[in-house]
């Protein structure tokens, strides 16, 4: 039986700034909502309302951010908040 690879091992969009696996965003060197401090093996998912889930198998770290940016309008503040929050959490460990 063939072992399934981790989501972070499969970048199916090498032509874009944001890497994507099958159903997951994969940590990319250029653009990543998980910030700069998560490992290259990190993978996650974001949603329109501002939610974010990121998993870093190397650090054994799971971060789930539940927000509702729709309530305040569609301002881009949540995009900056995600990366800053993930960096803060990762740096504190």
Q: Tell me, rounded to a whole number, the average pLDDT.
A: 81
Given helix and strand content, the structural type is: alpha+beta
**How would you sum up the global shape?**
globular
Instruction: Report the order of strands and helices.
Output: EEEEEH
The termini sit apart by 37 Å
State the major sheet. 5 strands, antiparallel
What's the structural domain tally?
1
Instruction: Give the number of DSSP strands.
Output: 5
Could you estimate the helical fraction of the residues in percent?
Answer: 10-25%
The radius of gyration over CA amounts to 14 Å
Low-pLDDT ranges: none
Number of helices: 1
Written overview of the protein:
This protein is α+β, with helices and mostly antiparallel strands and 93 residues long. It has one domain. It is 16% helix and 19% strand. It is built from one helix and five strands; from the N terminus they run βββββα. The protein has a five-stranded antiparallel sheet, with helices on one face. The longest helix is centred in the last third of the chain and has 15 residues, at 77-91. The protein is globular. It starts with 18 loop residues before the first strand and ends with a helix.
Give short descriptive properties of this protein.
five-stranded antiparallel sheet; Serine hydrolase; 93 residues; Beta-lactam-related; Beta-lactam/transpept-like; single chain; 16% helix; alpha+beta; globular
């Amino acid at each position: 039986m063939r072992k399934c690879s981790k989501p972070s091992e499969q970048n199916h969009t090498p032509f874009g700034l944001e890497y994507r696996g099958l159903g997951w965003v994969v940590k990319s060197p250029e653009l990543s909502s998980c910030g700069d401090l998560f490992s290259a093996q990190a993978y996650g998912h974001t949603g329109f309302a501002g939610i974010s889930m990121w998993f870093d198998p190397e650090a054994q770290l799971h971060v789930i951010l539940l927000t509702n940016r729709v309530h305040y309008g569609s301002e881009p503040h949540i995009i900056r908040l995600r990366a800053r929050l993930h960096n803060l959490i990762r740096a504190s460990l």
